């Protein structure tokens, strides 16, 4: 009987131990039905600590805050309990029934999943406004606006998008960062340097506000019809009052985070008129001047001159082709050299583009460079205009005379008619009495013809190779981009190898960012403060949003040591670091 009693007690202890060791991982929501203007809290709770927590996509919601992590330990009657929770605050995007999919976590080598939860999103509900509610403060006092200069432009007409952050008086915004940037599909785009953020006073819906210009972008629509400008979104940190007061009776403040968006904007792009469109029109839109010039009009044969085709003015200078120069066939002309001197301002592109042709005459005579024309669409008159260049005559003073007929209109001053006679070929021996030389047949062999023709065939290949090399060397922007990409890969190679290992990855990533700054800016390790980095990068003319992105990556490296990070988030931080290093290297002066 004692043996049976002992076995029973043993089984009870084992059952109790198994029950106490059972893993629980579940999802809980604050409510299963809510209005589209309310917020939903979802908690993912577990009774044992785990790794590699992966939340669901939340594709039907906007993540307002989270993940917020909390951990608790307790002892009750000698029994230890553990609870860990990941919390998210969600804002519904639309009405309807939506399912929040499974979250996963790895505990002791096993993967556990939560049960999907369905919530019903109804129409907006009436709820009292708490004047200290961060959502109310932000909605009433902070506005992100995208101002578009023109909503019905022609195709290839410049429009400007200015993003302004309006903040009401007595409201504080301590920080912000971009959470999504517009990609401007179907537009040629160029960001304009705002040279620091300046706080200005203005009006928003008739009321006094302070505002800063966050970004200016010039857009050239590349297709007709209804196009959408994607929204810019910011995560802002706002100082809001609490119900607590200090010993002097003053209300204490706290910080709250909120995502705001400028909203998408639509523009209607008009097609250029087909009526009276010139045959040589290549898409130029704006206000332009056109000319063809020559470095000299008198020279000797085998000397060179430079003929330049130039278009200058305001408009889409980088988005059309220059007309080609017509050169008589008796003049040797080389591939043109392109030169752009174009800057982009708030009103669009300004400057000039040119093509310079090197011309080498071979014979004495006068050679006309015929007039060529350039057509563009004038936005002021909404009509096409055609500009023509003057004819340029090249006078070759000394050199051999070209007795061949000139089909391109070249005039040879000493040109004489050649009269045929019976003795003109008298120097040709008609009975040479040739003797066969059988001792050597080298001149009839394949080796002879190969040796003779190979240099001739190599000439065009050498010319093509030289032109490709010159194009690559002349592509300053492309070379800087390639150099920046190689630089990013060089510094981030160790971080890439550590992807998936949280601590090792972020240590390597932070080290890579520091090493890059140390090599690029000659900043000593002791000077690595965010303020010093920001000040130095701005002094070197790096754009504000690029500096902000760099600082945010450094902050992520610091926070990642104390918060759970997924493989996807590590990859996102790696891609963001690579892109930011490349951008800094392209912008730095």
TrEMBL record:
<keyword id="KW-1133">Transmembrane helix</keyword>
<keyword id="KW-0812">Transmembrane</keyword>
<feature type="signal peptide">
    <location>
        <begin position="1"/>
        <end position="21"/>
    </location>
</feature>
<dbReference type="Pfam" id="PF13584">
    <property type="entry name" value="BatD"/>
</dbReference>
<keyword id="KW-0472">Membrane</keyword>
<keyword id="KW-0732">Signal</keyword>
<protein>
    <submittedName>
        <fullName>Protein BatD</fullName>
    </submittedName>
</protein>
<dbReference type="InterPro" id="IPR025738">
    <property type="entry name" value="BatD"/>
</dbReference>
<feature type="transmembrane region" description="Helical">
    <location>
        <begin position="446"/>
        <end position="465"/>
    </location>
</feature>
């Amino acid at each position: 009987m004692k043996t049976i009693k002992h076995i029973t007690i043993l089984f009870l202890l084992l059952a109790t131990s198994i029950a106490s060791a059972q893993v629980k991982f579940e999802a809980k929501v604050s409510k299963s039905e809510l209005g589209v203007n309310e917020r939903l809290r979802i908690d993912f709770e577990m009774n044992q600590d785990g790794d590699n927590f992966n939340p669901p996509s939340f594709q039907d919601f906007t993540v307002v805050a989270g993940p917020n992590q909390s951990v608790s330990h307790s002892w009750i009657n000698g029994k230890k309990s553990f609870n860990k929770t990941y919390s998210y605050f969600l804002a519904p995007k639309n009405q309807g029934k939506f399912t929040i999919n499974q979250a996963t976590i790895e505990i002791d080598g096993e993967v556990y999943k939560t049960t999907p939860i369905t919530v019903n999103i109804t129409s907006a509900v009436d709820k009292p406004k708490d004047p200290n509610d961060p959502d109310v403060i932000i909605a009433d006092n902070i506005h992100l606006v995208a101002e578009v200069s023109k909503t019905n432009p022609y195709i290839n007409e410049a429009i400007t998008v200015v993003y302004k952050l309006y903040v009401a008086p007595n409201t504080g915004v301590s920080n912000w960062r971009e959470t999504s940037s517009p990609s401007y599909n179907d537009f040629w785009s160029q960001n304009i340097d705002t040279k620091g953020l300046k706080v200005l006073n203005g009006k928003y819906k008739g009321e006094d506000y302070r505002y800063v210009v966050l970004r200016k972008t010039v857009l050239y629509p590349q297709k007709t019809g209804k196009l959408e400008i994607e929204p810019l979104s910011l995560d802002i940190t706002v100082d809001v009052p609490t119900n607590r007061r200090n010993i002097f009776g003053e209300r204490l403040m706290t910080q709250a985070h909120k995502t705001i968006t400028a909203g998408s904007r639509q523009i209607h792009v008009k097609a250029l008129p087909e009526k009276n469109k010139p045959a040589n029109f290549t898409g130029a839109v704006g206000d332009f001047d056109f000319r063809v010039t020559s470095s000299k009009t008198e020279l000797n044969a085998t000397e060179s001159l430079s003929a330049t085709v130039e278009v200058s003015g305001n408009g889409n200078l980088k988005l059309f082709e220059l007309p080609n120069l017509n050169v008589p066939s008796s003049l040797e002309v080389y591939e043109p050299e392109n030169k752009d001197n174009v800057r982009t301002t708030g009103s669009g592109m300004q400057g000039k583009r040119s093509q310079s042709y090197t011309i080498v005459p071979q014979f004495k005579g006068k050679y006309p460079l015929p007039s060529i024309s350039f057509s563009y669409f004038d936005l002021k008159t909404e009509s096409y205009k055609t500009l023509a260049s003057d004819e340029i005559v090249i006078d070759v003073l000394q050199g051999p005379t070209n007795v061949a007929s000139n089909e391109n209109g070249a005039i040879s001053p000493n040109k004489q008619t050649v009269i045929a006679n019976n003795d003109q070929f008298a120097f040709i021996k008609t009975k040479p009495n040739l003797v066969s030389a059988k001792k050597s047949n080298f001149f009839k062999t394949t080796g002879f013809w190969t040796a003779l023709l190979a240099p001739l065939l190599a000439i065009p290949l050498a010319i093509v190779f030289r032109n490709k090399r010159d194009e690559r060397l002349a592509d300053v922007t492309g070379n800087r981009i390639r150099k920046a990409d190689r630089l990013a890969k060089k510094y981030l190679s160790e971080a890439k190898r550590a992807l998936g290992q949280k601590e090792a990855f972020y240590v390597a990533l932070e080290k890579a960012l520091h090493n890059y700054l140390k090599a690029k800016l000659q900043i000593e390790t002791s000077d690595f403060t965010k303020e010093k980095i920001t000040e130095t990068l701005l002094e070197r003319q790096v754009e504000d949003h690029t500096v902000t992105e760099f600082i945010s990556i450094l902050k992520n490296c610091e926070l990642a040591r104390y918060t759970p990070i997924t493989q996807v988030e590590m990859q996102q931080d790696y891609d963001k670091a690579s892109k930011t290093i490349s951008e800094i290297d392209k912008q730095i002066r």
